[in-house]
Amino acid sequence: xxxKHYLEVSPRQPTKDAKQVEVLEFFAYSCSHCxxxxxxxxxxxxxxxxxxxxxxxxxxxxxxxxxxxxxxxALEALGMVEQLHGKVFHxxxxxxxxxxxxxxxAAFAAKNGADGKRIVETMNSFGVAGKVRQATALAAGYKIxxxxxxxxxxxxxxxxxxxxxxxxxxxxxDHLIALAKKAGK
Length: 185
What we know:
single chain, 5 strands
């Protein structure tokens, strides 16, 4: 139900590929709700139709958390999201690591079998800086006030607070994907 379980995004936000329905997960590594949501999201992703493009968009509500946006985009650039994304959540929420500085991140990476120096170098790259700017602009365009939130096709936004719970936001996203497909993309 529009206005209750999801909101229309105005103006409509750009999507990566006009031929695909796009779903964005706005998340923050520091967010305990995002950490708790991850298993339900992972299960949902396994059932996502092939013609739906899913992207994670890290959000920083404070300047000191921009480093987590950089970390995510470095993992993405290096093809390590699958290997380390969940482990970042576990390090922060399970092991109480802050991962708030390059040496902590390098040590975390090394402990998990990755090249910490390479990850930190990538975090500080021009390409990652551009992705952080794009993510921040998308979060502003979708008017993100909390995480996790799901943006669908540049048109709609749902979240646990709108849908009633974070797992229910996935059912709302399914509904919005079907609406986008019905509208002919």
